[in-house]
Design a protein that fits this description.
The protein contains eight helices and 18 strands. It has 296 residues and is an alpha+beta fold. It folds into two domains: 112 residues, Rossmann fold (3-Layer(aba) Sandwich); 160 residues, Sandwich (Tumour Suppressor Smad4). The chain has a 16-stranded mixed beta sheet that branches. A two-stranded antiparallel ribbon has the order 10-11. Helix 6 crosses helix 7. The two termini are 20 Å apart. The relative contact order is 0.17.
């Protein structure tokens, strides 16, 4: 079958070589002798136009150059279509790309797009909203909301905002209910993870897999702040989180296909790094084998 590509990216994005991304795409597609078109990412996050374009032009592959938020928004519109998804990591964290083994180097990312294997991977929904990688409620969502407002973004800005917010960190009351567990707790944050990391190779859920039909839920509970930070860093560094539904030094970690989180403290929400409106109840459900991702 002849492959036909759509590339989506922010036209203002640069690359390490100094060449515009569009030029690199044109050069590589000419070399690979494939048909392609280019679309720019949209500020209004409305990608419904892609559905007709994919069907009409018999597109086989959609390549997204961006971060987790952009990827998630585009996938929400097209994950049900029979296309392969490629990624050129261009975000601050690139959690999905790194979890899938896709390198940040653009030439190596192109190699995965043209020579890799399409594999079915999972996603999940929060109150019906699509999430491809990792979403959270609480402290990290508060940082995400502030990050969204910044004119200058990037990893250093995210770290800066995280450190600034540490001084005012607080816990929120939650009730977690699933087939496996029912628990009331006060937590700084709860992460719902389909991938094994926040981004930038920082692991939050070391047991998580893109293809196991489960989400990993990590709740960091009320404790001495400095002791909490030390424990989380220790568990992340050595991958010692367990999934036996027991509390381990202020950390609860378990896996499930579906759960409900009652959010009586109005903790903020982020979906794949983008701040979203909060709710009193969050219903989370796995979409097994949600789409085909080009992986090494």
């Amino acid at each position: 079958m002849q492959r036909r590509f759509i590339f989506l990216f922010n036209p203002r994005s640069g690359v390490q070589t100094g060449k515009p991304l569009q030029q690199l795409i044109e050069e590589r597609c000419k070399k690979e002798q494939v048909e392609f078109s280019i679309e720019h990412s949209r500020a209004d996050a409305d990608y419904s136009f892609l559905i007709e374009k994919i069907n009409t032009a018999a597109v086989t592959d959609v390549v997204i150059a961006g971060g987790d938020g952009t990827i998630s928004t585009i996938l929400a519109a097209i994950h049900h279509l029979p296309v392969n998804i490629g990624i050129i990591p261009r975000g601050s964290g690139n959690g999905l790309a790194f979890a899938a083994g896709i390198p940040k180097n653009i030439n190596k990312a192109f190699d995965v797009i043209f020579k890799g294997t399409a594999q079915r991977v999972d996603a999940f929904t929060i109150n019906g909203r699509f999430s491809c990688m990792l979403s959270g409620i609480g402290f990290d969502a508060k940082v995400a909301h502030e990050f969204d407002k910044q004119s200058k973004r990037g990893l250093l800005k995210y770290i800066q905002l995280s450190l600034e917010n540490i001084a005012s960190i607080k816990t929120y009351p939650f009730t977690i209910s699933s087939k496996e567990i029912n628990l009331q707790l006060d937590a700084y944050f709860i992460s719902i993870a389909n991938s094994n990391q926040f981004g930038n190779h920082v692991t939050i859920a070391p047991k998580a897999s893109l293809q196991d039909g489960l989400v990993d839920v990590v709740a960091v509970e009320k404790a001495n702040l400095f002791a909490m930070i030390s424990r989380v860093i220790w568990h992340i560094r050595f991958g010692t989180f367990t999934t036996d539904f027991a509390k381990r030094n202020g950390i609860t970690y378990f896996q499930t296909k579906e759960l409900t989180i009652t959010n009586t403290g109005n903790a903020p929400l982020h979906i794949d790094g983008d701040g979203k409106e909060a709710a009193g109840v969050f219903h989370i459900k796995v979409i097994a084998s949600a789409y085909s991702l080009l992986m090494p």
